[in-house]
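FW: tagging you since you asked about this chain on Friday. Here's the raw sequence from the shared folder, copied in full. Didn't touch anything.
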Amino acid sequence: MKKAITIILLLFGLLTVSAQTATDITNLQTPTLDETSGLIFYNNKTITHNDSGDAPNLYEFDTSTGTITRTVTINNATNIDWEDITQDASYIYIGDIGNNSGSRTDLKIYKISKVDYNDTDNTVTPEIISYTYANQTDFTPNVNNNNWDAEGLISYDDKLLIFSKNWIDNTVNVYSIPKTSSQVHSTVLESSYNTNGLITGVDTTSDESIIFLTGYSSTNAPFMFTIHNIPNASLDIFSGTVSEKISNIVPLGNQVEAISLFEITTTKHRLYISNEKYVVTIGPITIPFPAKLWMIEIDTDTITLTVPNTASDFAFSLYPNPFHVLLNLSKRVDEIIIYDVSGRKIIEQHFVEELSLEGLNKGLYIAHIKINNSTLVRKIIKQ
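HL: got it, structure written out here
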């Protein structure tokens, strides 16, 4: 009896949590679009793709019905784990960047000419941009327990920015690579942020002044962030103004995977969000959540919100940075944890104002600093 009551309560919770911000538009065509993983809006068409296992296809679909209206096949491509799609003025980029096990050595981005895409033969031949993570040395499979997975991709100035899905620490790292296919690129770590969740989709305005991120927490609760006021000529995007975490953008149980801006008015930014098909099983009861398309509106006031009561509100600094032995903190912190770029915890200290890091190897590290129950993420360099 107790088990039955628990199941009923769980079901009731799933079915009664409503979307606070997004509007349910339609189910996507099943089963073809059950694994929708990326979205862009191009030529007044909404385009998606599936993640691992599907044919190497892009799908245009009717946003009012979810029905596929055009299928474009990518020649000389394999859908190992396509996770996001982005564009610039001349090209469409598909990120084969999924890496749940952290063991891939064939990460790549398919670069498709829009002239080629606009042809009526429904096939395109891409360039292939290959890359590796500069500081990854261990490729031992570690499924859903590594910091080398990624599901977000945007074009930003003359670079592609890859947003990691850090299973270990629930933060996001932003890596840059050039848009050229002339060589295998080694990523550059540009920015990090404590999202307290897994980033699954990213998009930006055409002028690159605002970035939109979506993802879900360890309990599959969906969320969203916006970033603006990014310093000019900087790829440290999280040094801009990060909005408060917008929670429950769609109901619990809908695993959000992609986001795309499709319309800007004088007061609103309108975006599509898609979620893949997801099935919840509780004892003998199964609840299916179909692949869906949602619409969310972000107004000017929401974009300008900053995170309340965060460590960034303090005049806080670490110095010198780069450092040799001593790293000073401008005020006493509750906790500081230093990770290497692979997400491995190196040092943890509590209630300190300085750290002696003589034994630390030279290189780049990520410091997570807690002050008054808030967290600030900073890059530090040991010389």
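FW: The longest helix spans residues 2-16.
HL: agreed, and The chain has a mean pLDDT of 87.
FW: great, closing this out.
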